[in-house]
């Protein structure tokens, strides 16, 4: 079976290279037959990749230790679910998953583009084939998944225990769906540039794909944060780790794109800028993959040191030089007819929003690669830690928060004094009243007061937008408030979906502020029966329990939480030691409420039964996860097309590219 | 396996033979597919609908409303002209 897997990947590579060449020739010589043949080659390529994926999954599930990959990532006793997630827990499998997702996206994109924008088809097929060829080359020549073990062992090594968690099971594929999704907008834009300029329709098509990729990246980041919070046991959810940053950078750039493309649609401006953002987002997705796989920067998430880095850098350089060369070639054609009418307009606010998003992305990029840069220049590796990111990114995030409230309320073209008063009086009052209320309640951290007051202001702007829309609908149609609200959202899905996303980001921002500024932490060693106060909680340690199960030793600190004399129930914290190696995992004791999280980690213990515990009270963490759910709801609304085009039979002139052959 | 590979190769290469005859056609001469035109028209409709809402909620001044509306209607008319042109 391993040889069939190898053959499948090799044949898929040949097909990808054929598709690349046929699309290039077909596009250049205007030979539709070649382009259709190239698209069909991608279908066959996808089928072969699916076959390879199926072979690997079967080997993992059957625990076939003749496969080196299975030996490295599966062991007897490992839950079946994790045998499946082992597919992407290793370098080779994750690259195969990447290729599979790309094929799925490519087929969907080719089908839709053949129907709506056949002129872009050669370019889209060619770019997707080129990217697929690179990954298939890696899978066949550099890091093949179908290597056989010369002496198959009786048992495998199993996955890294830190990965044996449901959040880590879904975090990587979700992130890949986002990373790989950035290839399609890139292909559409490159195809547009090749055929004479990224026409508006092409960019709008790219927007749909970008929105999906953005949503997947958002969820991937959220799942990763949740995993970090519940598995790593350090009490936080974001550490500015290089691999976290690798996913954050394309998210920031794609967020900037989703705002700038609105200006392009509504005001026919920023076309050059939106095209650059699409190229940049794709480049950062490859750069992120390079960071994760090259081992050039150490990270808790990254794969081990590998020879892949050079190949990824080469591919990144090639694709960026090619794409930016095309952008430069078409630069004048992309120039917008309109210019900004006023600094106080929605266009200006969105432009500033883009500049700040890019500034954050650049800061994160610089901080992430600084160790490598410093080593290259001085010979000494210098790291910048979370304080650097916190100090630079926090003020920029506050500016973004302000713009999130200001932008949607500003009118297109220019704002008058009357419209400013009309739009900002009520939300501004909400923000000021909230600030005064917080100060009166004793909140003394100025940053937190500012952040919450701004959040109140932004929430006020969103509520005002909904209220005005509902009022207008009721005045014109006489609908009830609920019906008017539903109709409003359904008729303006993008706009109101976007506002709901803003509310989700707002919740997330409040959660991050609360948990960063007001977190309380204690590290204590307790004897059985002793208790410790942390925040408004009291935690009693009742003793240590020891148990063994399937090659592990589990130490459990029996804890009970109280608040104001009220018994909140057990709050056990565990540490699992793997007897076969040095690994251990943490099961935190966690009690979550909308107000705060009581979070306990078992750090160590003595033979006498004393336990060392880290206890934290993290305010508003639940708001972060709730924000993720609200973002999901808003993005789902925004992704549904506002109208479904009635299907018509397309009358294509003789000889034109026809989607029917795909 | 060999039969499957051969069948796949025939399927992938078949369009080459089909297009080799006279009238191989030119993609760039192809008419604008109706769905593309509908998408262009739909984008203008979206913009107009949003503008109407902004106007109704008092977010756009009367002058800017007229100017923006004229711009969108111009784009809609252009899409319509392209549509008619492509059907000739």
Structure description:
The complex is a heterodimer of chains A (662) and B (88). Chain A has 662 residues and is an alpha+beta fold. Chain A has 4 domains: 1-158, no CATH class; 160-333 and 344-405, no CATH class; 406-518, no CATH class; 520-621, Tick-borne Encephalitis virus Glycoprotein, domain 1 (Sandwich), CATH 2.60.98. Helices cover 63% and strands 11% of the residues of chain A. Chain A is built from 19 helices and 10 strands. Chain A has helices at residues 2-28, 32-61, 68-73, 80-85, 91-116, 121-142, 166-181, 183-194, 200-231, 242-267, 271-294, 308-329, 346-378, 386-409, 417-440, 446-477, 481-491, 493-517, 621-639, and strands at residues 520-526, 531-534, 537-549, 552-563, 566-570, 573-578, 584-587, 589-592, 596-605, 611-619. In chain A, the strands form 2 sheets. In chain A, strands 2, 3, 4, 5, 6 and 7 form a 6-stranded antiparallel sheet that branches. A 4-stranded antiparallel sheet of chain A has the order 1-10-9-8, with helices on one face. Chain B has 88 residues and is mostly helical. Chain B has a domain at 34-88. Helices cover 77% and strands 0% of the residues of chain B. Chain B has helices at residues 2-20, 34-56, 62-87. The longest helix of chain B is centred in the C-terminal third of the chain and has 26 residues, at 62-87. Chain B is rod-shaped. At the A-B interface, helix 1, helix 2, helix 9, helix 15 and helix 16 of A face helix 1, helix 2 and helix 3 of B.
In summary, what is this structure?
By secondary structure, chain A is of the alpha+beta class. Chain A contains 19 helices and ten strands. Chain A folds into four domains: 1-158, no CATH class; 160-333 and 344-405, no CATH class; 406-518, no CATH class; 520-621, Tick-borne Encephalitis virus Glycoprotein, domain 1 (Sandwich).
- Principal-axis shape of chain B equals rod-shaped
The number of helical elements of chain A comes to 19
- Which structural class matches the secondary elements of chain A? alpha+beta
Helix-strand pattern of chain B:
HHH
**Gap between N and C termini of chain B:** 49 Å
Shape of chain A: globular
What is the beta-strand fraction of chain B?
under 5%
Structural class given helices, strands, pairing of chain B?
mainly alpha
Instruction: Return Rg of chain B in Å.
Output: 23 Å
Report low-confidence residues of chain A grouped into runs of 5 or more: 644-661
Calculate the terminal CA-CA distance of chain A, rounded to whole Å: 30 Å
Low confidence ranges of chain B? 21-30
The main sheet of chain A comes to: 6 strands, antiparallel
Radius of gyration of chain A: 27 Å
Order of helices and strands of chain A: HHHHHHHHHHHHHHHHHHEEEEEEEEEEH
Membrane topology (chain A): Multi-pass membrane protein
Organism (chain A): Candidatus Segetimicrobium genomatis
Main location (chain A): membrane
Function (chain A): Required for the biogenesis of c-type cytochromes. Possible subunit of a heme lyase.
